[in-house]
Fold each of these.
Amino acid sequence: DSGVTQTPKHLITATGQRVTLRCSPRSGDLSVYWYQQSLDQGLQFLIQYYNGEERAKGNILERFSAQQFPDLHSELNLSSLELGDSALYFCASSGSYRGQETQYFGPGTRLLVL
Amino acid sequence: AQSVTQLGSHVSVSEGALVLLRCNYSSSVPPYLFWYVQYPNQGLQLLLKYTSAATLVKGINGFEAEFKKSETSFHLTKPSAHMSDAAEYFCAVSGETSYDKVIFGPGTSLSVIP
């Protein structure tokens, strides 16, 4: 168990809909990262938050948005969903442990858009 | 710009044999390099990372990788394969800070033959 939790585990929805994926980082970790894994695009970094502030942006579509709340959990919002958005969405958190910054991943949310 | 190539989308080794997974990178700045593992139906796990300290990096589960700037390579090795090593392995490169805007390779699927 990595200590990073993601809900829901599975999500089935229709094109045009909007969904919210939730991530809770490891206790004490300030950074949260979102990644997408699909058959077409492979693994892609989407966005990173640090202590509530956006720190880095990757290949995140304008239809997607994220935020990190004061309790450090994060939500990834996907809107106007398309078939191609079907993918596994991972969240990760990082923090310093014994002088090393280490990253831990959640189990992912599998999104299927029909 | 940064990119990662992984030679061989699928590698098979016998149990007890040497594991060698190849990774070459392209980066216009000094890179941070990573290896991640994804076990079947599970999330990602960070195996090891290179951050410009020692060129030989030791990771978890007996894996290690060597950074060779002249060859722009970061190959992953393990002296003796175990059945539990069967998984998908991803090499990744990042530019500015650790885990920031990570670019993943396409992955190599490792099979271990008893």
Amino acid sequence: GQQVMQIPQYQHVQEGEDFTTYCNSSTTLSNIQWYKQRPGGHPVFLIQLVKSGEVKKQKRLTFQFGEAKKNSSLHITATQTTDVGTYFCAGLNTNAGKSTFGDGTTLTVKP
Amino acid sequence: NAGVTQTPKFRILKIGQSMTLQCAQDMNHNYMYWYRQDPGMGLKLIYYSVGAGITDKGEVPNGYNVSRSTTEDFPLRLELAAPSQTSVYFCASSSQGRGAHSFEETQYFGPGTRLLVL
């Protein structure tokens, strides 16, 4: 079945440093979604990418979807303590009828 | 809109007991999901439903059952609770659809139910 791999599993950064998490799918995706889960909270939708090569920005967050629609990345510029949490990608393969989540990257930020 | 609601928020069960985790959404979404999340781990799909009367297994369905008699409700049933079912359970809903470029989906999660089986 479809697999979505996410790396790294954990990332510890100093406040102000940049952070990137990568997502790779074993199959071509219709779209990729990104979610953030704060400690003790539930996953919250951040953004969705649907076009090959698409790049979207939300303030300090930059999301990319690969040309082959099999990989994606989330980059945070100049991390802040409010960025802590686990970031999940989820890939929708319409043949599967549902999105498959990666295992997430947990970000900790040292002030 | 309340979004996705889950009850209870927290429950302690003894081994062998049964319970139903409730999930409801008021967004008229066709798709609903149940996930479990063990401490420090990712989301594992238990069951999902693409519409009322239709359910399908996810990657970890053993020990659980679901039903979808209405669009709004998607309860998860544990028949014989085991310590391995200690976890946080999240319900989610979405409306998959064809956008301008491709199929699109946004999942909305409930606040979760923390279950401890002793």
Amino acid sequence: GENVEQHPSTLSVQEGDSAVIKCTYSDSASNYFPWYKQELGKRPQLIIDIRSNVGEKKDQRIAVTLNKTAKHFSLHITETQPEDSAVYFCAATNGNQFYFGTGTSLTVIP
Amino acid sequence: GAVVSQHPSRVICKSGTSVKIECRSLDFQATTMFWYRQFPKQSLMLMATSNEGSKATYEQGVEKDKFLINHASLTLSTLTVTSAHPEDSSFYICSATFRGRTYEQYFGPGTRLTVT
């Protein structure tokens, strides 16, 4: 089955700085890679996603890059704000089950 | 967007009792529902995948006799934690996908189970 690894587990940045979270996956059949933001006690919210036929996608301050050859993808948040503080999960799927990374707790320090 | 609800949002039960958690898709027919378990500050661990009208597929290490999943209709799946013990205390989240859009996963709000 799929194995998704995520780093770092915790990340603290100053407000305005950038944050980068990295994930690797093992199953070459995975072709969709979403990123979720989860606040304490709430459901995960999809913030951005990328399909395997695309190398990069950007949505305002958030961007995701994918390297299919190396089987890794990354989330980039620029100009971080305190409200970006949350736990972020990457995931990989081939359209059947979704497999999640271990999560990154991001703290943006005002 | 599509909405998935869960009930109850919080439940406290005594050790040895059974608890049922419902997951409903409110405005679409979910072809597949997933059940996850999440411990504090940890990731979502897939427990089982449930397709309407068929038996759930459990992930390795998940006891199917302890975590009973029923997907009786295209809008409802239930997870029953049987003979609950304190170690079953966790945050349980369901999600759903629907036909033709299996890459879009809609999460329920989660159920906080505490077993005393």
